[in-house]
Amino acid sequence: MQVPKRWAAERLAPRFPGDGDREPADQAEEFLDWEEVDSGVIVSRGKELRFWHLTFQEYLAARAIAGQGDAAQQELLLSGDTLYQPEWREAALLLGGILYGQGAEKVDGLFSAALKKLGQKPSLDKQARRAGVLGAMVRDLKPFGYKPADPLYQKTLDAVMDIFDAKKSKGIDFQVRLEAADVLGQAGDLRLRDDNWVTTMTKRNPFMRSS
């Protein structure tokens, strides 16, 4: 993401007092020029300005979203399934941590809205996409002991087990299935809760000596 340097300077202008002939925006623009040279955090292309590393953009995007009200957040992230686009993945993970800092109920609110949007009879593809993203957020919050309060989360994980069925998962992108499978592994694969291990008997080879 790039913005005009002057636009960025005008946003920073309130932090500069101005001094005689120079307006605050002019001071801010000079500050940006020096920051580009001294820190390397920002770089310019012509009259456009951007952060050198994408992670800065993703973090600030997450901070900006977290600063909005719940309804605005959900409209931005869930309208058109923005939250599940590959380019939004890192921002979504960072957002989870920021929202948790505001209170676990903030994360619960986003999860419930995302799960509710699935509808009554969601496709396996949609369930797998949500499980992949939401599950990754839960994994990042695991050190804090966070667990989604909405029972629909676990129901979705249970339903996503069908990604291991060759017929039912046909047509679902491999990366989507891989991310969902990773989440299931973190949450606890249902197949491992049953006594369904295969027992094998090994016949003794008569040509081998016993020690």
Describe the structure.
By secondary structure, the protein is mostly helical. The chain has 2 domains: 50 residues; 136 residues. Helices cover 53% and strands 5% of the residues. α1 crosses α2, α4 packs across α6 and α5 crosses α6. The longest helix is centred in the middle third of the chain and has 17 residues.
Summarize the structure.
The chain has 211 residues and is mainly alpha-helical. It has 9 helices and 3 strands.
Please describe the structure with a list of short key phrases separated by commas or semicolons.
2 domains; mainly alpha; three-stranded antiparallel beta sheet; elongated; 9 helices; 53% helix; 211 residues
Topology order in helix (H) and strand (E) letters: EHHEEHHHHHHH
Proportion of residues in helical segments:
40-55%
Number of structural units classed as domains: 2
- What assembly state would you assign to the polypeptide chains in this entry? single chain
Q: Class by helix and strand content?
A: mainly alpha
Uncertain residue ranges = none
Beta fraction? under 5%
Distance between the ends: 69 Å
Rg calc:
25 Å
Number of strands: 3
Strand line-up in the sheet with most strands: 1-3-2
Biggest sheet details: 3 strands, antiparallel
Average pLDDT: 79
Coarse morphology = elongated
Question: What's the helix and strand layout?
Answer:
Blueprint (H helix, E strand, L loop, with lengths): L2 E2 H8 L11 H15 L3 E4 L2 E4 L2 H13 L3 H9 L10 H14 L1 H13 L7 H17 L10 H9 L14 H14 L24
Antiparallel strand pairs: 1-3, 2-3
Helix pairs in contact: 1-2, 3-5, 4-6, 5-6, 5-7, 7-8, 7-9
